[in-house]
Amino acid sequence: MFRKALLCLSLVSLVGCNDDDKIETTPTTPEYQLPKILVIGHRGASALRPEHTLASYQEAIDDGADFIEPDLVSTKDGVLVTRHENEIGGTTNISTLTQFADRKTTKNIDGVNLTGWFTEDLTLNELQQVKARERIPEFRPANTAYNDLYSIPTLEQVIELAEANYKKTGKIIGLYIETKHPTYFKNRNLAMEDTLLKTLAKYQYTRDIAPIYLQSFEVSNLKYLKDQLDLHKTLKHAQIIQLYDAKTSRPADFVESGVSKTYGDLATAQSLKDVAKYANGVGPSKNYILNFNTDGSVQTTSFISDAHAAGLKVHPYTFRPENNFLPQPLKCSDKPAERCPTGALKEFEAYFKAGVDGVFTDDPALGRQAVTNFEKTTK
Q1: Alpha carbon distance 209, 228 (integer Å)
Q2: Is the peptide bond between 144 and the residue preceding it cis, with omega within 30 degrees of 0?
Q3: Residue 241: predicted pLDDT
Q4: How many CA atoms are closer than 13 Å to the CA of 89, on its beta-carbon side?
Q5: Which domains does the chain have, with CATH numbers?
Q6: What is the pTM of this model?
Q7: Angle CA(349)–CA(354)–CA(356) in degrees, nearest 5?
Q8: DSSP assignment string, 299-350
């Protein structure tokens, strides 16, 4: 009880104390050691289940992921829920629900006009009436069998899922959390950062046990999160990851504040050293690292060596098993939706040889197989 009281006192005004006595044990090892190459379940196991559902996250855990990745957006009443975008017309059945027909609208999200239904226009209670659907049925038709079965999870439900797995199996699953469109939400009085930190500090699992990575395509909110983590020190294993979009694009907070730097500008050797002042790692798209030639050979850039020289881990995205998403020389056929495990494994191997520290993958089972194969050949 004395230790618990000290924990509560350390949370200061940012975090409220709770009665979380669900976990009575700590890992058997003195400190949890992360694997050399992380398998990150991108939106769960989204190649096998509709993304950002508890079923997708559970499948990722069952298939050997080290981390599961929830993307966060906000509801109208400020609850953090997991969706890749705040526009949910393409990932749910909301377009079929007559009670929400009048919520369809057009908005400008980070410079792009989108028409549909938006989480910030729905309370959590309303959102719970909506069911998830497969986002890309043209490439993953088998996933449509799970349409309309699963609700949209809250961040707390995802934490509780990972916690329950830990209690059952003893395996620690990290949470690799992305705040989506943070400037957009902040400008609508729905800033996510403090709510995110408070929620993570509420649970012993995310506070003291599991590795927590906080990622964003923007910069200012990551610096804020870093400052809060340093100030309050309530999350024992939290790290910051800077994501990289297309090289010619700019972070949305840079656009708003008039900063002209692009993601490509942030990828130089010197800029990576600057990123390392607030981040522990970087999440670039795959083409920052290497590209495949038509004969299957690869051209590798200096990005990994530059990032490592700055002390940053490198976790590229996104590794997908269907022909449509594989480099041309690795495709199994000209059928876009066909799964191609052999090509996917070759792609993983190329990036492992290049020196990545982890991979975002829609199919963690293939990612785990690739890591196992690679480790056998490099012993």
Answers
A1: 19
A2: no
A3: 98
A4: 13
A5: 38-86+153-378 (3.20.20.190)
A6: 0.91
A7: 85
A8: EE-SHHHHHHHTT-EE--B-B--BGGGS-GGG-SSS-TTSB-HHHHHHHHHH
